[in-house]
Design a protein that fits this description.
By secondary structure, the protein is an alpha/beta fold. The protein is built from eleven helices and seven strands. Helix 6 links the parallel strand 4 and strand 5. Helix 1 crosses helix 2, helix 3 packs across helix 4 and helix 9 packs across helix 11.
Length: 252
């Protein structure tokens, strides 16, 4: 990324530390420090970094030796133990690599009690999928699972020209803020299975998608069986999950 104004806007989109938010912020994949520079200028956050590329780590250790020596980790965010490293919680920010952006958000979900906020640049289609409401063609698995636990805001689009070399797709910056949900009101592991199964055959009705994974439920029918998955809200998927659990128990 070579547009300093975009980097400044991303850094500014991270909420300042306060009573309800941890001061610690973890930047994923700082690269040559275009975003890092502006995050380090903020005195209301404590910046940490994780970068998998050895040359980038060496560059940042030369540029910001005192900070990097103490707070920059050479390694893979997806393998980090956030609970051990940040027991008091941490906010996440970064220009996320396209090829692992979904994995980053799934890791955030696994640690949702620790991560109250995420600000990240991703491929525009991924950002749209995350933020879209039910009924949209791009609404899918990631939409439902993230919206169950986070309020998601599509902040702004980023053109191809801010990168060297320019990618073939546009990017976008999103902000996720942990919502008030502490429990979904259903078996959460089964909820994930139901959501993934429902979108498994996207063009088919939910009846066919769920039966291909869970069986025929003893011939029982749910009112949502004639709908397609993209029509259902998080709350409706919770209700569907409870129904599936009841039918599984009843049919043994």
């Amino acid at each position: 990324m070579n547009d300093l104004n975009i980097a400044r806007k991303i850094a500014g989109a991270v909420t300042g530390g306060g009573e309800s938010l941890p001061a610690d912020v973890l930047e994923i994949g700082g690269g040559t420090g275009v975003l890092t520079r502006f995050l380090l200028e903020r005195d209301d956050i404590g910046l940490w970094g994780v970068e998998v590329d050895r040359e980038s780590v060496a560059y940042m250790r030369e540029r910001w030796p005192e900070w990097a020596e103490a707070r920059l980790t050479e390694g893979d965010f997806l393998k980090m133990d956030l609970r051990e490293r940040f027991p008091g919680g941490v906010r996440v920010v970064g220009n996320f690599p396209y090829n692992i952006s979904s994995q980053i958000f799934f890791k955030v979900l696994e640690n949702r009690d620790l991560v109250p906020e995420v600000v990240g640049m991703v491929q525009r289609e991924v950002a749209q999928r995350m933020a879209e409401p039910p009924g949209s063609r791009t609404y899918g698995i990631l939409s439902v699972l993230l919206q169950a636990w986070y309020d998601i805001e599509y902040l702004f689009t980023v053109s191809e020209g801010v990168f060297t070399p320019p990618p073939k797709v546009k990017s976008a910056v999103v902000r996720l803020v942990r919502n008030g949900t502490r429990e979904l009101g259903c078996d959460e592991a089964l909820f994930v299975r139901v959501v993934k199964a429902s979108f498994g055959q996207r063009r088919k009705m939910i009846r066919n998608s769920l039966r291909s994974v869970f069986g025929d439920f003893g011939g029982a029918e749910h009112p949502f069986f004639s709908e397609r998955a993209e029509k259902l809200s998080v709350a409706q998927f919770v209700g569907l999950t409870n129904w599936v659990e009841e039918r599984i128990s009843a049919t043994g």
